[in-house]
Amino acid sequence: MGFLRLKMPPKFQLVALLAFAIVMIFLENQIQNLEESRGKLERAIARHEVREIEQRHIQEGAKEALVKEDDLVVIYNRVPKTASTSFTNIAYDLCNKNHYHVLHINTTKNNPVMSLQDQVRFVKNVTLWKEMKPAFYHGHVSFLDFTKFGVKKKPIYINVIRDPIERLVSYYYFLRFGDDYRPGLRRRKQGDKKTFDDCVAAGGSDCAPEKLWLQIPFFCGHYFECWNIGSKWALEQAKYNLVNEYMLVGVTEELEDFVMMLEAALPRFFKGATELYRTGKKSHLRKTSEKKPPTKESIARLQQSDIWKMENEFYEFALEQFQYIRAHAVREKDGELYLLAQNFIYEKIYPKTT
């Protein structure tokens, strides 16, 4: 360039510099385009390699995957009066079609706490009863930690909870009037005509704040402190178990969304569950008879208790967790919820396949 400056007039030097700059810009653009094309090519190659790997392992892994799926166990330790019968009916309706077994855990007098020896028996049954796998167990029992018994592969826990006062009101009238599921069955409090409001006004035991203490101990488990009414330790343990031991916990008020997400996460059991819930005759089968909503005064009186505050804190915690999971799983369009498609891929897979 120094030679050009000596031999070329200034005008031609400027033209030469501009031409050089244009060439450099052009080359930089070409390099950038090549890099982008290379990136696209690498991603395309990666996707192709993934498809090749998947195809190569489909036949090899099909039998192994089927064995693993057929070894699944789901436990639904259902809390009373949370729409548990409505949800369980879906599992019963799908078991033949999806080829799994449904087993009801019927404890004596509906006692949610098992003796130590029954805990051992139950863990052995669930773990070793191969003829019943894949299995969906349901019953009114509190959470049981399988790892305490040396089990490496734990079952999948799911559950549904409800606004604590609404749950108590439903249970109060259920004990007196039953439901439309088995209308002829005589209930324990049949003949008692007092409304829930009458009970609250009279300070009755069936509507006392202590009766709210149920969802926390069901999630807390078989420890003594879980059933110590008003225990802060039980509340924190219930929260811990909900997050760490349960795959999904729904709420009665949003049961359809719960069913939809279960179908997406566990199609081995729940394929077809959403459509069945929306169109089937049993989706809202069990309804408590003669139930009257409580007055604001009765609700306010219950809400003064520390027990309600703790149970409600747990319910709100579960609701927020459920809504967080749902926000990352579905989208709403035209008033309908739709599951999101797979949102990840594999790339940069080494060593390269031949």
Automatic annotation (TrEMBL):
<keyword id="KW-0808">Transferase</keyword>
<dbReference type="GO" id="GO:0004394">
    <property type="term" value="F:heparan sulfate 2-sulfotransferase activity"/>
</dbReference>
<dbReference type="InterPro" id="IPR005331">
    <property type="entry name" value="Sulfotransferase"/>
</dbReference>
<dbReference type="InterPro" id="IPR007734">
    <property type="entry name" value="Heparan_SO4_2-O-STrfase"/>
</dbReference>
<keyword id="KW-1133">Transmembrane helix</keyword>
<keyword id="KW-1015">Disulfide bond</keyword>
<keyword id="KW-0472">Membrane</keyword>
<keyword id="KW-0175">Coiled coil</keyword>
<dbReference type="InterPro" id="IPR027417">
    <property type="entry name" value="P-loop_NTPase"/>
</dbReference>
<keyword id="KW-0735">Signal-anchor</keyword>
<dbReference type="Pfam" id="PF03567">
    <property type="entry name" value="Sulfotransfer_2"/>
</dbReference>
<protein>
    <recommendedName>
        <fullName>Heparan sulfate 2-O-sulfotransferase 1</fullName>
    </recommendedName>
</protein>
<comment type="similarity">
    <text>Belongs to the sulfotransferase 3 family.</text>
</comment>
<feature type="coiled-coil region">
    <location>
        <begin position="24"/>
        <end position="51"/>
    </location>
</feature>
<keyword id="KW-0325">Glycoprotein</keyword>
<keyword id="KW-0333">Golgi apparatus</keyword>
<dbReference type="GO" id="GO:0000139">
    <property type="term" value="C:Golgi membrane"/>
</dbReference>
<keyword id="KW-0812">Transmembrane</keyword>
